[in-house]
Design goal:
globular; 7-stranded antiparallel sheet; single chain; carbohydrate metabolism; 687 residues
Length: 687
């Protein structure tokens, strides 16, 4: 602990579904994702984070609590005025010299991201044998910042603690503070605490920042205009930016790196953000910090002005890009029917294809047109599709575009994990592009779930939340099978073996295991029945709507029995067991994990059989949520095939074959049939 002087400061029906996805994605892409409604200063020497000044300032404005007393005694907290300042008065009345008093600011967490030091200003007003211990935790690990009990100074002193020196690294997003007092002489004592604040380093040279705005419209701006904001960050100390942000109308947007591989900041690194803007007058500027100097901002620009047009046109493409040899399609949507249906495809400024669009129809109050540009196979990173002078966002064509996205695919499911703190499931550096800190949620619904009548509690924690809410639905339990099959089908490829959390298990297998743990619980407790656990609150993080305590009013109840869900669960469990056994056989599992995963694979097989037998016994039961064409037989086909491939039991193969032989052309609309019929060399082959 070091002491310094006191511091202070503050994809017709099928198309409809696809169109919905495209429009939803396009909305996300053209509507910036706000980091913060208010432009608060970035961390820096002049912008410390004031947690509590005990005078109504800072993030925490409530009273601290005497949370616990070790070996007897009591503690109190109040505010008082001492030395012309309002401070926190913490007292301890011990029963012995072994008594400790623990104080906490309720059970609140604070995000210290960007800050290096925690500072606590304290004073002993004259009591003998007064000791203090300052603790910070993140929900997983507690760190004794004072390295034990230390004497409290008798003059106002700010003690500074280096959070970056903690091992393992502190998750600064979920920091919690504790103050422990100990009157080692066994007599009453008082401790005064003033500011508690976080601060940064103050060294090096501030970065420089330049920026500009361009648009895909040469004459006037309207809702169709795509604006490209670019900024260049230069730091002579070669320190990376903590944040590179565009501020439009006092809302923050995190900019993207032009080159993720560029780690040299001393000669300038480029960032960009592309968006559309609503009608009105706008302002913008850029800002950044390196955390060792103060925030740097460009001058505010009083532009652009966006005017209204009745004809709103969007050209939507895959923002991930396209594989060179794959089908490539763009969609154009327009409020009014287009008289000009021509289009061009450009690679940079060079036109590489022209043609006329195909009219798909009128969906959701928009005219929809298709552009097939599959003939373009040359690699490039700056392709655009243009129609009616409206350009798509730039996109890439590469031999295998998905190589750069495999980590984000598993990352998506990690963020949807239920009953865990997702920041723990998503270690720093897990994906090439980190998600916003606001997307993480704390552990929630640890009290799932009650029976429909509320008389029985089952342990049904885990699984993934639905993509649109915090429910968990039986009809979605096919997802784990696709994750497992992604590994199985490519188990010989190095690209399927990535282990970004370094736990000795390929991440695809890891995620299939996580989803299957939930299904094993269902099989063991409910004998093959599968239910929904619907969202019972608004669209806020689950920890804000559940107390995580069994038997209370907010416990979610089972509803929506679905035999289709049971069949999907059987398929997922069998696929997961296959993935585990394949990974072990390939040597992709760390030796220390083999025994436990072998046992779990056996448990998955047993649970898959439990679900399957339930489906066979209840062929006319309710399909359940997220029903598909073909109903229960559709879902059961997934289980038939996966159990046959897992066990080599021909009864499953015979059941699948009988089902496949009944299929007609219309069944092509059902994904399960595409995949499973191919296994037996059927007439449908699209795997």
């Amino acid at each position: 602990m070091s002491s310094t002087t006191r511091m202070k400061g503050r994809s017709r029906r099928f198309w409809c579904i696809c169109l919905g996805l495209i429009l939803a994605l396009n909305t996300l892409l053209i509507s910036p994702s706000t980091t913060s409604a208010a432009v608060t200063p970035l961390p820096g020497p002049n912008n410390p984070l004031l947690y509590d000044d005990f005078n109504g300032g800072g993030l925490y404005k409530q009273n601290w609590m005497n949370w616990f007393n070790q070996a007897g005694g009591t503690g109190t907290y109040s505010k008082t005025t001492v030395d012309s300042r309002q401070v926190g008065l913490f007292t301890q009345t011990p029963t012995s010299s072994s008594s400790w008093a623990k104080f906490q600011p309720m059970n609140e967490t604070v995000d210290l991201t960007g800050y290096r030091y925690l500072n606590v200003t304290m004073k002993n007003p004259g009591y003998a044998n007064s000791l203090i211990r300052v603790v910070v935790g993140d929900g997983t690990t507690n760190y004794n910042l004072t390295n034990g009990w230390v004497a409290i100074p008798t003059t106002w002193t700010t003690s500074q603690f280096d959070l970056n020196a903690l091992t393992p690294a502190l998750n600064k997003k979920t920091a919690r503070f504790e103050i422990w007092l100990r009157q080692s002489g066994g007599t009453y004592g008082e401790t005064l605490i003033d500011d508690i604040f976080a601060s940064t380093d103050n060294s090096g040279t501030a970065p420089t920042l330049t920026g500009s705005m361009t648009a895909n419209s040469a004459s006037g701006y309207n809702q169709n205009t795509s604006f490209t904001f670019k900024a260049t960050y230069t730091d002579v100390d070669n320190e990376k930016p903590f944040a590179m942000q565009l501020v439009v109308d006092d809302s923050l947007y995190d900019m993207r790196e032009e080159d993720n591989g560029d780690t040299t900041y001393s000669n300038g690194k480029n960032y960009y953000y592309i968006t559309k803007l609503p009608v009105g007058s706008h302002t913008y500027y850029f800002r950044t910090t390196d955390l060792t100097s103060n925030q740097v901002s460009t001058a505010v620009q009083n532009q652009p002005v966006v005017t209204n047009t009745a004809q709103v046109i969007d050209v939507t493409v895959s923002q991930a890009g396209y594989n060179a040899g794959a089908f490539k399609n763009a969609k154009v949507t327009a409020q009014l029917a287009l008289t000009d249906t021509s289009y061009v495809v450009k690679n940079g400024a060079t036109v590489v294809a022209t043609g006329n669009m195909t009219y798909d129809g009128f969906f959701w109050n928009k005219h929809v047109y298709s552009i097939d540009f599959s003939s373009i196979t040359a690699s490039g990173t700056n392709y655009t599709v243009v129609s009616n002078s409206i350009s798509s966002f730039p996109f890439a064509i590469q031999p295998n575009i998905w190589t750069n996205y495999k980590d984000e695919m598993t990352a998506f499911y990690r963020i949807l994990r239920a009953s865990v703190a997702t920041s723990d499931a998503y270690p720093a550096g897990y994906s090439s592009v980190a998600p916003s800190a606001n997307i993480y949620h704390a552990a929630g619904h640890l009290d799932d779930a009650q029976s429909a009548d509320g008389l029985t509690h089952y342990d049904l924690t885990g699984s993934w939340y639905d993509a649109g809410d915090y429910g968990k639905y039986g009809g979605n339990q096919w997802v784990g099978s696709e994750i497992a099959l992604a590994y199985i089908r490519h188990a010989d490829a190095a690209s399927s073996k990535f282990d970004n959390d370094s736990n000795g298990i390929p991440d695809l297998v890891d995620e299939a295991v996580f989803g299957s743990e939930y299904l094993v619980k269902f099989a063991n407790q409910l004998g093959g029945e599968m239910y929904d656990l619907k969202n019972n609150a608004s669209f806020v993080h689950p920890s804000k709507t559940t107390d995580n305590i069994n038997g209370t009013a907010d416990d979610r109840k089972l509803s929506g029995l679905g035999v289709g869900g049971s069949a999907k669960a059987a398929g997922t469990l069998a696929a997961t067991a296959r993935a585990i056994r394949t990974a072990i056989a390939k040597g992709d599992i760390a030796p220390a994990k083999v025994t436990a995963l072998t046992t779990f694979a056996n448990n998955c097989e047993a649970a898959a059989v439990t679900f399957y037998n339930y489906v066979v016994a209840n062929p006319n039961g309710p399909v359940g949520s997220y029903s598909t064409r073909g109903g229960i037989p559709n879902s059961k086909l997934l289980a038939d095939v996966q159990l046959y491939l897992l066990t080599n039991n021909t009864a499953y193969k015979d059941a699948a074959t009988a089902n496949i032989n009944t299929l007609v052309f219309a069944d092509l609309a059902s994904t399960n049939y595409w995949v499973e019929a191919d296994v037996f060399g059927g007439v449908l082959s699209s795997r």
